[in-house]
Design a protein that fits this description.
By secondary structure, the chain is α/β, with parallel strands linked by helices. The chain contains eight helices and 16 strands. The protein has helices spanning 19-26, 43-48, 113-116, 179-190, 206-213, 228-232, 238-258, 275-285; strands spanning 2-4, 9-13, 35-41, 61-66, 85-90, 103-112, 124-131, 142-143, 149-152, 162-163, 169-172, 196-202, 221-226, 265-269, 294-297, 300-304. Strands 1-2-3-4-5-6-7-9-11-12-13-14-16-15 form a 14-stranded mixed beta sheet. It has a two-stranded parallel sheet with strand order 8-10. Strand 15 (294-297) and strand 16 (300-304) form a beta hairpin. Helix 4 (179-190) runs parallel beside helix 5 (206-213).
């Protein structure tokens, strides 16, 4: 599917035979491109993009997703002085660091903390891993006051090098017990007003989660999705899942009673918990807290306060 309009928005999917011909025509209008979304980019089309090199003076948003057969580096977007949003799902190209960037979404990329200093306006950041160069002073933290949303796939030490005083939302995918130290360190040196914590594919135990919750006075939303492999490996079983949910909810109640913050949403993915047990939890805890309602959506247990 292809769409292009006079406002400079280009959406192009390369799953059709005519994509290369269309791209050849559209590159003649590249000086008008403001927002570009290219999906399923194949080698022939990637090569055709060379025609737009140096002609993207108005480009503000770029989303790029290449077919796995694309191996040569893409340089067509190296010169984009107005780029504000960069999203790369899968593409052999260097991450573009610039002073104009406000959103950098690269969930599969290893980012350099040295180069992040070139992005003083960055508000939203997503990466697989953030690491310093070999000659970086590891005792020094990079202060990025503009960042409010951060998502990391690998939480190993990445946050140890960042000071994020205005961070509102944090996502640590595939985190384990180490996330307690990661989050604690962030809170201690950044003193950020964290309002939302997401832990998709969580691989750790319950006590570290409990300790984290006690350190979040401004928390409004918590999302925890346990990794399915933990059940497959026998780490969690049907017999202890109710205890897992109960322990977390008991601590949430304690936090809600003692904290000035109002937790408005809690979501935890579950595998074995049946509706009857959800109702049991409802009756056990509702009268003791500000929890008003439990909702069972698929295998997700949530409440809204």
């Amino acid at each position: 599917m292809t769409s292009s309009d006079r406002n400079g928005t280009l959406n192009l999917s390369f799953f059709e035979e005519r994509s290369l011909q269309l791209l050849a025509v559209l590159t003649n209008l590249s000086d008008r491109w403001v927002s570009v979304d290219l999906r399923g980019l194949v080698p022939s089309c990637a090569k055709a993009l060379d025609a737009v090199t140096g002609k993207l003076s108005r480009l503000e948003a770029l989303h790029l997703d290449c077919d796995e057969t694309v191996e040569e580096d893409i340089h067509a977007f190296d010169d984009t002085p107005c780029l504000r949003t960069l999203s790369i799902d899968n593409a052999p190209m260097e991450v573009l660091y610039s002073r104009s960037l406000v959103a950098l979404i690269t969930p599969l990329a290893f980012l350099s903390i040295d180069m992040l200093s070139e992005c003083p306006r960055l508000q939203r950041l997503s990466a697989f891993f953030i690491s310093p160069s070999s000659n970086y002073d590891r005792r020094r933290r990079l202060t990025m006051e503009s960042i409010t949303h951060l998502s990391l796939t690998n939480d190993n030490d990445s946050l140890m090098y960042l000071d994020l005083p205005n961070l509102l939302e944090l996502e640590l995918a595939e985190a384990g017990d180490q996330c307690e130290l990661t989050v604690t360190s962030l809170l201690e040196h950044s003193r950020c007003p964290l309002r939302k914590l997401s832990l998709p594919l969580y691989r750790g135990d319950i006590p570290p989660l409990v300790k984290i919750l006690r350190r979040l006075p401004n928390i409004e939303e918590v999302v925890i999705e346990f990794c399915d492999s933990l059940w497959e490996e026998g780490y969690y079983t049907e017999h202890i899942e109710l205890r897992v949910a109960s322990e977390l909810l008991e601590d949430l109640i304690s936090v809600m009673k003692t904290s000035p913050a109002r937790l408005t949403q809690f979501r935890m993915s579950l595998m074995f918990l049946e509706p009857l047990e959800v109702y049991r939890l409802h009756y056990i805890f509702c009268d003791e807290s500000r929890v008003h309602d439990f909702l069972l959506e698929g295998n997700a247990l949530s409440f809204k306060g």
